[in-house]
UniProtKB/TrEMBL annotation:
Domain 1-deoxy-D-xylulose 5-phosphate reductoisomerase N-terminal: 9-137
Catalysed reaction equations from the record: 2-C-methyl-D-erythritol 4-phosphate + NADP(+) = 1-deoxy-D-xylulose 5-phosphate + NADPH + H(+)
Provenance organism: Microbulbifer celer
Residue ranges constituting the DXP reductoisomerase C-terminal domain according to the UniProt record: 270-386
Protein name: 1-deoxy-D-xylulose 5-phosphate reductoisomerase
InterPro entries in UniProt: DXP_reductoisomerase, DXP_reductoisomerase_C, DXP_reductoisomerase_N, DXPR_C, DXPR_C_sf, NAD(P)-bd_dom_sf
Record flagged with keyword NAD: no
Cofactor(s) this protein requires: Mg(2+); Mn(2+)
Matching Pfam families: DXP_redisom_C, DXP_reductoisom, DXPR_C
Protein family membership: Belongs to the DXR family.
Positions of Mn(2+) binding: D155, E157, E230
Reported function: Catalyzes the NADPH-dependent rearrangement and reduction of 1-deoxy-D-xylulose-5-phosphate (DXP) to 2-C-methyl-D-erythritol 4-phosphate (MEP).
Listed EC numbers: 1.1.1.267
GO molecular function terms noted in the UniProt entry: 1-deoxy-D-xylulose-5-phosphate reductoisomerase activity
Length: 401
């Protein structure tokens, strides 16, 4: 048997929750993977520590001031790692000819350019950064079709769906698929009285019952916008119509999603809620490697529950479905407005229940346009952010907090 060559990995967003889990998996397989580049926005000391552990060829931070600081830390440690900065630095390492695999784990729209750079350079791209696909769906998917890149979903639900589908699967109908069942835990406020939701704090919203994640996605899980973004993500990834996807609330997060076939079969992928499983799956696909996640003990687990989502409690789910049905720039607009609203909520400047209010207003006052290319995506994103800031300012002026 041929000795497999070492795969060189670029981890975009290495200091985040997904980034750290990715490095945990990579560290278990030093013969198979080496770290080529690590990137972060601001946690320079942590990035320097990761550089000490993995000695990447490059480390990238967003601004030049922090890059200088990192250069100092790396020089002290006598490391050869070269430090780059800016979006250009991110795109450069994502597309470097020496890179085999790119983990796209930057949070939010900021991940779009580097993720697209990896796609255009024909990399194996592990997609955690769902916002980049949601905001740029048609542009992203055509870049993928025109390149030699392979896109593997990291989002646990999409990774589960991928595992339950035949491979490759270009056409759900031809594969005998009737429906995709997208599961979600319902987040920390699934059964909190609706009347109390206006007063919940960022820390309460970030205390997810099953998953430990970054703060933005944690708030998205609490509003169920995360499931909304995932709904849109699934439409693009699996060439699915919105009517072919059903959201099912499953509070234990043991089943990560399911695929229902024409013959009555329902395939589910299960496991402990730990992102190292989808990360290891996508990294090694089609092989299987150890992820460090303990086997699921179904007897200890005891039961699995399911219920329908409550769209009155979680209007974000409806807003996301409407956005994907409207198509064009509507998901771009939804994502941008959501990012502005969530940031304001995390700063303590907006009530939790006003997150969907902002998104709804921005969606209603924005004309849907066709996404002809990256410029059109970025323009729609900017316009929606400006509008969301205006709505936010109006809400803040009307209701001092
Ligand atoms: P996080 O906030 O923990 O980490 C984000 C990373 O991106 C950090 O390394 C940060 O430095 C970097 N970053 C942030 N803003 C940046 C910018 N403007 N430019 C460059 N880098 C920037 O987030 P996370 O929870 O790891 O999530 C990352 C992505 O993965 C998100 O898109 C999220 O939706 C998705 N995801 C996360 C999980 C999870 O369990 N955490 C599960 C599924 C999908
Ligand atoms: Mg998910």
């Amino acid at each position: 048997m041929q000795t497999p060559s070492v795969q060189r990995v670029c981890v975009l967003g290495s200091t985040g929750s997904i980034g750290v889990s990715t490095l945990d998996v990579l560290a278990r397989h030093p013969q198979q993977y080496s770290v080529f580049a690590l990137t972060a926005r601001e946690r320079v000391a942590e990035l320097a520590q990761q550089c000490r552990q993995f000695t990447p060829r490059y480390a990238v931070v967003l601004d030049e001031g922090r890059a200088e600081k990192l250069r100092g830390l790396l020089a002290e440690a006598e490391l050869p790692t070269e430090v780059l900065s800016g979006v250009e630095g991110l795109c450069q390492v994502a597309a470097d000819s020496q890179v085999d695999v790119v983990m796209a784990a930057i949070v939010g729209a900021a991940g779009l350019r580097p993720t697209l750079a990896a796609v255009e350079a024909g990399k194996k791209v592990l997609l955690a950064n769902k916002e980049s696909l949601v905001m740029a769906g048609p542009v992203f998917m055509s870049a993928l079709a025109e390149s030699d890149a392979q896109l593997l979903p990291i989002d646990s639900e999409h990774n589960a769906i991928f595992q339950c589908l035949p491979f490759p699967c270009e056409d759900l109908n031809a594969a005998g698929v009737e429906r995709i069942l997208l599961t979600g835990s319902g987040g920390p406020f699934r059964s909190r009285p609706v009347s109390e939701l206006g007063a919940v704090t960022p820390d309460e919203a970030c205390a997810h019952p099953n998953w430990s994640m970054g703060r933005k996605i944690s708030v998205d899980s609490a509003t169920m916008m995360n499931k909304g973004l995932e709904f849109i993500e699934a439409c693009y990834l699996f060439h699915a119509q919105p009517a072919e996807i059903q959201v099912v609330v499953h509070p234990q997060s043991i089943i990560h999603s399911m695929v229902q076939y024409r013959d009555g079969s329902l395939l589910a992928q299960m496991g402990n809620p730990d992102m190292r499983t989808p990360i290891a799956h996508a990294l090694a696909f089609p092989e299987r490697i150890d992820s460090g996640v303990p086997a699921l003990d179904l007897i200890a687990q005891g039961r699995l529950d399911f219920e329908a989502p409550d769209e009155a409690r979680f209007p974000c789910l409806r807003l996301a479905r409407e956005a994907v049905e409207a198509g064009g720039s509507a998901p771009t607009c939804l994502n941008a407005a959501n990012e502005i609203a969530v940031e304001a909520f995390l700063r303590g400047e907006l009530a939790f229940t006003e997150i969907p209010t902002i998104i709804d207003e921005v969606m209603k006052s924005t004309e849907v346009v066709e996404l002809t290319g990256l410029e059109a995506v970025e323009l729609a994103d900017r316009n929606a952010r400006d509008l969301a800031q205006q709505v936010l300012a109006r809400i803040q002026a009307g209701s001092p907090q």
